[in-house]
Amino acid sequence: MEEKLRQEPSNLIKIVLFGPESTGKTTLSQQLARHYNTVWVPEYAREYLQDKWNNERKTCEPHDLLPIAEGQIRLENELSKKTSDVLICDTDLLETKVYSEAYYIGYCDPVLEKYALQNTYDLYFLTYIDTPWEADDLRDKPNEREKMFKCFQETLEKYDRNFIILKGDKKTRLKTAIKHIDKLLKA
Description:
With 187 residues, the chain is an alpha/beta fold. It is 49% helix and 11% strand. The longest helix has 17 residues.
């Protein structure tokens, strides 16, 4: 099972959109992929949990986290073979770890935690909570956005991840993100 959570090696610049729900990660992932003519890795948890909701009317439970993590890395590994320079990831296992700890009283499966910390990315864009909340079947913490943002920021700081906080409207965020990715591409 552990092999299913391991990133395959690559020379790509890997970018992660990271932060609380409904902060524009998917929109920005798609915009960046278009800009760089590359692929983006969607958030596997959305598909998995939407199917669970549609079929069982149940939300995420602790036993769902490892299958979600496996699906996320499988997607990332598959899509990393379809580009040559930059891979845009709508999320990563570190985000799954943050949600696990937030929802399950500080608990994160040790295997998930191991790979959340071991898998590597070149840059994280931490999306701020200055975007309008958009409700859907899966989002459930509209009043805890500030608390969740702090959890995400503290996690990036604790594990010494390279990150930039993105604030502002879609155009401003995109421009800022492009500036930082371009620096990595030129390095």
